[in-house]
Structure formats: C-alpha cells, structure tokens
Design goal:
The chain is an alpha/beta fold. The protein has 8 helices and 10 strands. The protein has a 6-stranded parallel β-sheet, sandwiched between helices. β8 and β9 form a beta hairpin.
C-alpha cells in the first residue's frame, strides 16, 4: 500500500507519523509552487489524503482523479461550497472518498452523545442550548467544521431551533489549542455541559487512517462518504473482538 499525503502542516505530519508507526509507507507533499499538485507525483498511490486547505481541495482531487487514484480521504475544512462539484467529479470517475470536518473517533461518538442530550434537554423549555469552540490562533475558519456539524445536529433535533444559525455559538482563536468543543444546556438553577478536548492530533490521524482502511476493505459506492460508516465499522469490530 502506498499512501500520499497532501499537506506538510501539523495534520499531514501527524498522519504520516501514524502511518509509519504501523509500518505503512507514506509520502508527504507540501504546497506546490504551481498551485496544483502534479498528476505524475500521484500516480501509483493506493490512497491520497488531503490535509491542506479548503481552497486547494478541488484542484487536489482533480489531480488525484487524473492520476487514477481510487481511494481518497479529505481531512480538511473550509471547502463546503465546492462539495457538490467534488462529489460529482468522484461519481463521474467511479471513485469513493471519505470526508469529514473531524476524524477523531472521540468527536464522532461525542456528536452522538450531543444528539441524545439534545433530545432530552430540548424537551424541557427551561434549558437553553449553546456551543463554544476553541482552536489555535492560526486556524482561519470560524466556527470550525466540527462546530458547524455539532450545530447542525442540535438544530435538527431541538424544537426551538429553526436552523443552526439560531444556536448561540462562540469561537475562540488563541494560543495553540488543537481543538476544544463544548455543548451546554443552561437553566436558571443549573448548567449541564458536554466537552471534548484534543490534546494533540494523534486522534485525528488515527481516524484518517481508519477511513483509508475502510475504503480499501471493500468496494464502496462512488462519491463522498461521511465518517459515520467508518465509526460504525470500528465499533462493530471492537465488539466482535471483545
């Protein structure tokens, strides 16, 4: 198996380290001076992982498809406006990809806890929902992709939220925090909070490689896939192993 990682930032390096730790060769390609990665550089890759920037996703995916890559993982945010175009290009070429705002297994399970909590507290008028997220000062998008996903999940299930825009959301950009997300429900006499804090990027890297494994394990339908099926597969395999 040959893995090529696009992006030599903290996330790209974390994925490469995780791949090397399990004995899998991985090559990191930094930002190309031409603005788009060379098709020749991607030929022969078993999986291409995009850990760059949102504005680079369309060009990177086009180069990977032209190189004949069959497995793609998109591990960056800020490209939602191009999602339909990327999905259409994948379907046209018969290629499957996994894309998520966050590849942490903990965050994926946290999101499911938030859904359950919203069902419970949303049924009580006394509790108001809110969301706080904190990332390093150099992170450009706000709210984060994870925060937007959590907000959407809340809005779908909360009877007093017509859309995610109705949720009180605060974004902090300071220091070097790799990521903290907090969902709370506040009433006059008490506050209930659910919080997940990343200590480093190893959890994200593990999820990215799990997504790559999921793509390789079976013939997946063309187009973009969320991280949830990968999580379901991980949970099932853990249960079997137990």
């Amino acid at each position: 198996m040959t893995t090529i990682i696009l992006g030599d930032g903290p996330m790209g390096r974390a994925v490469a380290d995780a791949a090397h730790d399990r004995g899998e060769p991985a090559t990191i390609l930094g930002r190309p001076t031409t603005g788009r990665h060379s098709v020749d550089a991607l030929v022969g890759a078993d999986v291409v992982i995009d850990a760059t920037r949102g504005e680079a996703v369309v060009g990177n995916m086009a180069a990977a498809l032209d190189a004949g890559v069959r497995h793609l993982v998109i591990a960056t945010t800020g490209w939602s406006a191009d999602r339909a175009d990327v999905d259409a290009a994948l379907r046209e070429r018969g290629v499957a990809a996994v894309a998520a705002s966050n590849f942490s297994l903990g965050v994926a399970l946290f999101a499911r806890l938030v859904e359950v909590a919203t069902d419970l507290f949303g049924a009580v008028d006394a509790f108001d929902p809110y969301l706080v997220e904190w990332h390093r000062r150099t992170k450009t998008d706000r709210p984060s992709g994870t925060a937007l996903d959590l907000a959407r999940r809340l809005a779908v299930r909360h009877p007093r939220l017509a859309s995610a825009d109705d949720l009180e959301t605060a974004s902090i950009r300071a220091g070097a925090s790799p990521g903290m997300h907090l969902v709370g429900f506040d009433a006059v006499g008490e506050t209930v909070e659910l919080r997940i804090t990343a200590r480093d990027r190893t959890a994200y890297a593990a999820g990215v490689l799990a997504a790559a494994d999921w793509l390789r394990a079976d013939e997946r339908s063309p187009g973009l896939h969320p991280f949830d099926p990968v999580v379901d597969d991980l949970i099932h395999r853990q249960a079997v192993a137990a």
